[in-house]
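Model: Ready when you are.
Researcher: Fold this.
Model:
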Amino acid sequence: MNSVLLSLDRPRELPQHRDAEPASYVHSNMLIWNDLRYAFRSFGRTPGFTTLAVLTITVGIGANSAIFSVVNSVLLRPLPYTDSGRIFQIVDNAPVGSGAIASSFPKFSFLHDHARSFSDIAGVGLC
């Protein structure tokens, strides 16, 4: 075995193996196929584990797709309005514990008729 000494004044030398030439594409491809054949043989020996692993991966991929679909439609996709970056929310809060309705139609009508800072105002009623 060759010993390599580390020194600050010369670069480190890597040990050379007698068959150090790189594997060819065909050789590495055969290694991959051998690994895949071994994996499928192992899965065949333990069908319960294989079924559980496949079901777990399937549920994980399905849940990931569902969550991404919701996040994409709610958070990532822009609103279907022109200049959606200029949309604001006006909130009128009632005192806490008063039981009063936070806003009313007369307040909305007043804002709609007299607001000059907004090009348009829309109201949403929640029951």
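Researcher: Now this one.
Model:
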Amino acid sequence: MSFYVNLRYITPKYVGLSKTEAKILDTLTTKKRGNAYGIWKLSGLKHYPTVLRALKKLEEQRLAQVVSVSGKRGEKVYVPTLGGVLISYVLNRDENKIVEMVTKNSSKFRELYKIEKDDHWAFSAVRNMIADVYAKKEPRSFDEAIEDVVADAIVDTVTDGVFNRNKEAMDWLLKLPKVKWVREMAVNWIENEQKRVRKMMNDLDELKEGLID
């Protein structure tokens, strides 16, 4: 399995997590929720204040969030955000968990996978979702991310197939319309492109007539 979500495509801000911060993120992702003390004990790190600083950094970067505060000392309970979980899987190069997560949460990916068993759809979608987190936006849903990846693939494939006469690209595209929403997306893009080209041809005809006159 090729690991398409490689680190050079992931936002440097996240890749630049220190080893301690990455360790805390991994521990929190494994534990799913917990207070600083519990995370510290599970992580095996020596110094408790280091864990507190790491959690604060993860919270600032939207990789972890506080879900409750209790007790006289205001003890915080943390959970990893969706972006935090995805980043943790990427940093650990855990391809299987990434594919499992996308499969579980995206009906559109499951439909695609029946036609073309290629994990790159999942990896590319996750890459885009992580980019959303870095841009301080709410991550698009798994289905939305898959749709965006397919839309880009349609544009690239049609362009390559039509303009470069690439039969392999056209054959690949003709296989995907077995999935209804992909077919509708492709037809819609082609129709819009046809309108654009017709307008361009009309503009060229007018320009030509002007030059002849």
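Researcher: Key takeaway?
Model: The longest strand covers residues 64-70.
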